[in-house]
Amino acid sequence: MTHDLSEDITGDQESKNYQNKSENTWREYFSFNTDHKVIGVQYMVMTFIFFLIGGLLAMLIRAELLTPESNLVDRPLYNGLFTMHGTIMIFLWIIPFNAGLSNYLVPLMIGARDMSFPLLNAISFWILPPAGLLLLSSFFLPNGTAQAGWWSYPPVSLQVPGDQFINGEFIWIVSLVLIGISSIMGAVNFVTTIFWMRAPGMTFFRMPVFVWSVFSAQLLQLINLPSLTAGLILLLLDLSFGTQFFKPDGNGDPIIYQHLFWFYSHPAVYIMALPAFGIFAEVLPAFSRNPLFGYRSVAIATLGIALISIFVWVHHMFTSATPGWMRMTFMATSMLVAIPTGIKAFAWTATIWRSKLHLETPMLFAMGGAAMFIFGGVTGVMLAATPFDIHVNNTYFVVGHFHYIVFNTITMAIFAAIYYWFPKITGRMYAEGWGKLHFWLTFIPANITFFSMHPLGLQGMLRRVSSYDPQYQGWNVIASLGSFLLGASTLPFIANIVGSWLYGARAVDNPWHATGLEWTISSPPPRDNFEKIPVVNRPPYDYGDPKYSFVENSNDGESH
Q1: Is 471 exposed, middle or buried (0-12, 13-18, 19+ CB in 10 A)?
Q2: pLDDT tens-digit readout, 29-88
Q3: Buried b (16+ CB within 10 A) or exposed e, 328-356
Q4: Do the beta carbons of residue 416 and residue 283 sit within 8 Å?
Q5: Half-sphere exposure for 147 (CA within 13 Å, toward CB)
Q6: Closest alpha carbon to 85 in 111, 112, 107, 65
Q7: Which of 123, 308, 394, 396 could form a disulfide with 456 if both were Cys (CB 3.0 to 4.6 A apart)?
């Protein structure tokens, strides 16, 4: 059964919302600003632009793969397209968008006025636009952009055509180092804010799961990201300054780079996925009117995923001369991560079980993303098994699995978050009909596109190639047509968000009747978030329990 929660408003609430509007103007979003809400919007808008660019590159790749022959772009450009597509979507879309959403929400959710280090927060954002533009500028170099994939393994990444000091690989490395510095600065801010800036009464087990997810993901950034940054710096020294850390013809070891890269880049999957899981934990209870099932177990499982993910990186290297004992060890740890993720999936299912569901757009995206994560998780367990992983290594089965996680789960969760918190951020309601159209235009083509890659991989089609055996054309045509529809699905989303932000109906403070501190203040929030720092005496997700309430603190103390 469905019901439009946004219709349950009163004239008094609407009047209150007008009186408590945010003081931010549009000019502030284009300037250096230390307000966490402005910085959050800056992150989200900028990264969405890069998402559109990365999507266009993906459609060029799929256009090339419509036919077995390489007849649309030459092979160096094709290599550059898939290198830049992967780099942009991971490092300039999902990870920084999650940072922007977290920037906006975490202080509101824990009862803080801002992040711990507002100036550092602003600096960490303003590193990203120049880094992203620098990365894109490599398309205009004589020999083009980097062509070694988003993983940039040596010795391939060290085989740069021509003899130019400034080349596509050089720019790629510098851009990634800058992005990494930005992420480390942000991680320091998030961990400090969540640990020290919580409102009185906001114990760890009163924090929303989204905050738990951000906390766990940012701990991974602090622990694992320095290894990638160090590896990239060593790679740059090999590329441009004559060192031989990874050069096999100079007593270097390219396998060491793979260890440094994957020690971060597998946990990076959970750095991307954990906030998505947190979004599901906020949206599903709100639109099923049920408390989150097994809240404490879900919170502990969030930290468990982060902990286990530190010890699984070698499963990306089962075919890299990895000794047998290491294969078996990391096969076991890779499968172990299924336990805490299974706890989350069970909790989501139990939360909505036999509920009166309110199928607004955020709920559709959350349910769709959670369902597709189940499929991506099953294929992930398959890939954790060493014999199967070796069989499908470097095939489209891996590509299909990965995109079921990064697009069909994480990007779907991001869309759920945008629709869910859009009234809070903008003070406007989006158009529900356009939102549902966007969901179906995303959900169906996403499955057409990425499911088709699994049989291709099982049949043996290699990834990263621009020409292939004609026997694979059928599934490739299906995948490519699905990708074009998927690209077109962003058009109603853009029209809806831009039009609603400018002309949408005024939103009340809490259009979804959700729990959480962010829903107790005006839409959009005032500059200082809370007139008085609240005292929290209720658990999260207490839907239907009238005995709990938020209490305004009599003094203006910052945190406990």
Answers
A1: exposed
A2: 888 999 999 999 999 999 999 999 999 999 999 999 999 999 999 999 999 999 999 999
A3: ebbbebbbebbebbebbbebbeebbeeee
A4: yes
A5: 17
A6: 65
A7: 396
